[in-house]
Give the backbone structure.
Amino acid sequence: MAYEITIGDSVLEATFVPEVGMVGNSLRHEGEELLFARDGLAGYKEHGSVFGIPLLHPFANRLSAWEFELAGQRVKLDPDSPVAHRDAATGTVIHGLLGASPDWKVVDADRNMLTAELDFAAVPQYMAAFPFAHRVRYVASVAQTTLTVAFTVIASGEHAVPVSFGFHPYLTLPGSDRREWQVEIPVASRGILDERMIPTGQTEAVAPDELDGPLGDRTFDTSYPTLYGAGPAGSDPPPTFSLADGKRRISLRHVSGYPVSQVYAPERSDFICFEPMTAPIDALISGDGLNWVEPGEEFTATFTISVE
C-alpha cells in the first residue's frame, strides 16, 4: 500500500503519494472528489493512466526527437528505459521522466503543508537520459478552499538547467453532465500542431472570451502559447482557467512562472485538464520560450486550484 499524505480539512483536502511521483491523487471539496482517476493509483503507477495531478518534468508534453543536442550536452532518451514514456498515437516521447518516480523524499509535513524533494543528479537513469544536474522541490499547501503548488528547480551542478516542466491536473465536477459545464479559457493564441502534435511555429489569434461558455461536445488537445494576463508581473491579473456547474466552480490560476497552457478534454471525457506549463511544447529542442537556471540558482513556478 502506497504511503499517502493528506493536507487540509473537511472543506478542502488534498492527498499526495510521494513514492509514486508525488502525484496528487485526491482533491476533495466537502467530501466530493474533484480529480478524475480512470484506473486509479495502480493504473497510473503501472502504465501512466489518466490520473489525478501528475508532474511532467523535465519536460511537459511531447518532444519531436528522442535524441538531440542541448547547450553542448547530448540528450539521449531511450524508448526502452522505464523512465521514458512513448505516446502510442504519435511515437513521440511524452510527459517527462519522473512519472510515478519512487525517489521523492518527504522533508516536512503538517496538517496544511507538504514539502518533498528529489535529487535528480543522484539517480543514474535520470542523468543518463537528461544530463543536467539539479534538485527539485515540491511544496503543496491548503488554505481555506485553495490548494497551492509551488515547484522549484535548483541547478546543483556546473551547467545551467533548462526549465520546461508542467502539471496535468485532471479536473472533474461530480454529479453533473460535462456538456453543461461552463468553462473559461483565457488564451490569446492557439498553436498550430503537425500530425505528431508538435508545434509548427505558426499560431492563430484567439479573441478574448472566444472559448468561454458551455463545454458541450467540444474537445480539446490544444496548445496555447500565449495567455491573457501572462504579461509582466503586476500588469494584469494572472491567467485563471475555470469550470463550473450549478454547485461549484473550480479555478486554476497561473500565479507565477507559467506563461503557457495546454487544454485537454477528449471526446466523451468526464474531465478537463488546464495544464500550466513553463515553456511551450518541444521547447527543449526548438528553444522557443525556454528559460535556464544558472548554477547555484533556482527557479520556482506556482499555480493554485481554488473551489467555490
Q: What stands out?
A: The mean pLDDT is 95. The two ends are 33 Å apart (CA to CA).
